[in-house]
Amino acid sequence: MDKSSNGKRSKAIDVNRFTLFGAVTFILVLVATYMSLVAAPLEAVQGVHQKIFYIHVPLAFIAYASITVVFIASIAFLTTKNPKWDRLARTSAEIGIISTTIVLFSGSLWGRPVWGAWWSWSDARLVTTLVMWLIYMGYLMLRSLGESNNQTAKVSSIIGILGFVNVPITYFSVYLWTYLHPLPTLQSSTERPESSILMPFLWSFLAYSAVIILIGIVRNKIEKSSDELETIKKQNQIR
Amino acid sequence: MSKSIPRIDQQVFRLFYRELLIEFRAKEQLTTMVIFALTTIIIFQFSFEMRAGNIKVLIPGVLWISVFFASMLSLNRSFSRDQEENTSRGIASTPIDPLSIYISKVLTNTIFLCALEVILLPIITVLLNSSILYINLIPVLLVGNIGVSATGAIVAATLANTKSRETLLPVILLPLLLPVLLGCITATGAIIDEQPITKYGHWVQIVAIYDIIFTLASGLMFHFAIEN
After folding, report:
1. What is the chain A residue with the closest CA to B217?
2. Do A155 and B161 touch (CB under 8 A)?
3. Structural domain span for residue B202
């Protein structure tokens, strides 16, 4: 009796915490939108087109972070065989794909007025980001075509690790083959961004990170329920 | 009385010999690869000749795409044959190090790709009327073949137990191999254009680094790929 009431209580707390986190995320998104669209000054050369960077750059960071999580969780799954790591890898790969898709689209939208082209095949970072997107689409295809079992999880983990090898190539390619793509200003030692531009960036980064974490929590819960359902189905089949 | 486990180099040699022996008897993989690559080149020739003024500029791409898809056939066959005939289970039950299996598969596929190119290059020279028989091409072909084989072997082994392996192998392998293909195509193009090594040497280095990273990562994970 006590146990069930405790369970209900912890669930209620969980829901409350989740709602609170959702509300905070919503406020963060509102602040970030105001900061980037209204408060941030227009960039002298690129003008209004530079505004797209407040979405593009934070999501690019999130995309790389997600792929890193897939890599770490895949190694953890292969060594421990604990399904929670596989769920984390699955969720992170989906988040990585969503972020990379938005990064590619927003980069293309920025490229048209500034570079004069939607796409440039001579830019290595652009191409390797597309390659990264293709690798993780293959990863998700593998997951969706395979049965929901330990074998699929193991196979996906190996591909998840191999796919990560591509990430440093993506990241460092800008230093090796710089052509059209601008050098990342936030890391450049010679050109520091002004605080009026940096602050909206940080707010955007915070807001989009919160959105992604929120989606990740929900997705992970769904995956956990789905795994539990699979286990119950298999147990019933055995009986 | 009990025999000691052979050293890793002896294991690799025996497995490599086994692969070559199977091919020597069946004449299956290499024949299929050559015919397939040849068909691809002819199709490319028909497709491009109508539009492209200078077919020579397309040769590096045609060569490497043919090599990539031919290796796909070879790798798929190599692992599915072991799977169908239960050889993989037999090998797994012996005290052979999984790393030896991986190295032997990479070696076999690299040798097959080298043999394919030895046949293919003179044919391309004749059919496309452009000589691509350059000595400088050897390191490019070698780093490219090792890259395709090292990555291809781990992905093919990983997918061997899955239902949609034929569909998924090119889908997963092509993006993983894109840096190798990009480097090799650019370097081959520079050699055909008779440019100095300073114009393409860095591409060979990049592909070589990629080969080392992928071989190490794949070698470390291969036992996960073949365990059931």
Report:
1. A162
2. yes
3. 8-226
Task: Give the whole-angstrom CA distance, residue A29 versus residue A40.
Answer: 15
User: From B166, which residue of chain A is nearest by alpha-carbon distance?
Assistant: A142
Q: What are B121-175's pLDDT values in tens digits?
A: 998 888 887 778 888 899 999 999 999 999 999 999 888 877 777 788 888 998 8
How near does any CA of chain B get to the CA of A95, in Å?
19
Distance CA A175, CA A124 (A): 10
Question: How high is the ipTM of this complex?
Answer: 0.84
Q: Does A149 touch chain B (CB under 8 A)?
A: no
- d(CA B180, CA B64) in angstroms, rounded, equals 10
Total count of domains within chain B? 1
Domain ranges, residue A98: 2-238
Does B27 have pLDDT greater than 50?
yes
CA angle, B22 as apex, B21 and B28 as ends, to 5°?
A: 125
Convert the pLDDT of each residue in A90-146 to its tens digit.
999 999 999 999 999 998 888 888 878 888 776 767 777 888 899 999 999 988 887
The helices-and-strands tally (H runs, E runs) of chain A is: 6, 0
Cβ B38 vs Cβ B123: under 8 Å? yes
- Residues of chain A in contact with residue B218, where contact means CB-CB under 8 angstroms, are 162
